[in-house]
């Protein structure tokens, strides 16, 4: 049996085992502590949704590099594409030379990314943070306006500007001052909307809160862009309700503001579509700019920004680009990733996984008082833990305990939410039904073990 078809298996008395612990000990001496390390696991080999540590323990990975490995680890076609490109050349700086891989990938994304406008352009950089920062630069250049609006619960990156955009300031300790002109509205977190509101009333409430920003923070004529994730990642897997998105699109159209969708985590099949903004397009409210990264190239560092040509044409020459943007290896990997995802219908795989897990999570919601909410789209499924359903008090303590105990049984989970009370699903979309079931069994064992944790 290949590693990609195995089930979780722990053979050492503790996790990590002695070989893994040795590497972790060496890491603590040689590497910056501030990077952080959430799990007692060392990856020696990985395939599909599984990885093996140096001691032979086999883990099911529901984190997937925080959404990077939608196609699975070590896909042989992607490896071959990278190897073939490396045999020709590894790098050609696109500001200086042209190479066909960059052009072909831009052409492909211009066809499939659902942004407003018929003629599109795409640029490449290296990370999600860079994509988001460049999207704002592009929006400012197009509109001639200095300010942007972002939202509570948002995560957009760790550059100086995107730290200002990101809501969770645990990622920005000792890093200020930050750029001004970044204003924060309240995201439509329906589970935690004011009590007794219907969904329609809550959406009206959140739209009113957004419109108040033009009186209390930035006049609309100074606002270049409204930026948000179709499903908040770090914020707790909170989907943007489509009726709210439609209302935001209307506001942007009326006030000359660009709508920017951060698809860094939602993109490339995770949402049950190639892009979550396809749902927006179907509802008649496509964004003006989309940013992408993570699973675009299965871990080869590349990210992208796509918008209609007239937006890009307003950007002064030389203000965007960079040394590694559109690296040849990343372009080759991304082209192959998209080819495989379209050929094998990975969005349907996401919907299949998401349906199975959502059904089980909803059973737990009925069964356990500590499960407060289940939400998401496609395989972006979040499960929120509370001390009890009546109070909805966030319960990060039980999530921390569940994650620890699940890892000891061979399942890697990750928290989310401003208080760390949500477990988010970012498993590779090639995960088998048997692996999904094995993961659910371990997860429920960890819940049952910690029901008294508050």
Brief overview:
It is globular, with a radius of gyration of 22 Å.
3D architecture notes:
This protein has helices spanning 18-30, 64-67, 76-86, 100-112, 128-143, 160-165, 199-216, 242-255, 277-282, 309-312, 328-343, 346-367, 396-408, 433-449, and strands at residues 45-47, 50-52, 58-61, 120-125, 147-151, 182-185, 223-228, 231-232, 238-239, 258-262, 289-292, 303-308, 371-377, 380-385, 411-412, 414-416, 422-424. With 454 residues, the chain is α/β, with parallel strands linked by helices. The chain folds into 2 domains: 3-61 and 346-449, Aspartate Aminotransferase, domain 1 (Alpha-Beta Complex); 79-343, Aspartate Aminotransferase, domain 2 (3-Layer(aba) Sandwich). The protein has a 7-stranded mixed β-sheet, with helices on both faces. It has a 4-stranded mixed β-sheet with strand order 1-2-3-15. A hairpin with a 5-residue loop joins strand 8 and strand 9 (238-239). It is globular. The mean pLDDT is 96. It catalyses: 4-aminobutanoate + 2-oxoglutarate = succinate semialdehyde + L-glutamate; (S)-3-amino-2-methylpropanoate + 2-oxoglutarate = 2-methyl-3-oxopropanoate + L-glutamate. Pathway: Amino-acid degradation; 4-aminobutanoate degradation. Belongs to the class-III pyridoxal-phosphate-dependent aminotransferase family.
